[in-house]
Amino acid sequence: MSTKNDYSDAEWKAISTAPVAAGLLITASDASGLAQEVVVVGHAISTSTLGDAPEIVKVLTHHIKAGGGTPDMPDLPGGGHAPTKAALISVVRAAVGALQRKSPAEAESYKAWLASVTAKVSCASMEGRRNGNGRPQLNPDEDEALRQLTDVLAVSLGTTPLVARRS
Known about the structure:
Elements: H1 9-29, H2 34-46, H3 55-66, H4 81-102, H5 104-126, H6 140-153
Helix pairs in contact: 1-2, 1-4, 1-5, 1-6, 2-5, 4-5, 4-6, 5-6
């Protein structure tokens, strides 16, 4: 399995910031619950080594803990929501691409893990919001952000926790 040393600095930066980028893409779509959702992102990452976590996630989590427990943040441009969202998607795309090139055996489990982090943030975002049937609901901007992430991750909604938010 791969480690930080298997990647260039830019590739590792993408891999290590992709979970934060994925979570921030959702939170940037609705700032009303930003503080709660950022806490959820941090918790989702820090508990990732529980259970069946992919080896790259264990390496990443160890890196975060060794650095004081704070995950690396992606570089974000100024200029509003559109450039920020594009930069966040780009980070996730670069991380997935690096893994697919250098450690294809880990790529699918890493993508599923990113989807699970995103699902946890989405669930936190939906708290207190209900649709006409009383079900939790994302706002349209959050829903679009989640759709963009699932496209980049190329994960099936039927095989990840993301399916719960579409119910």
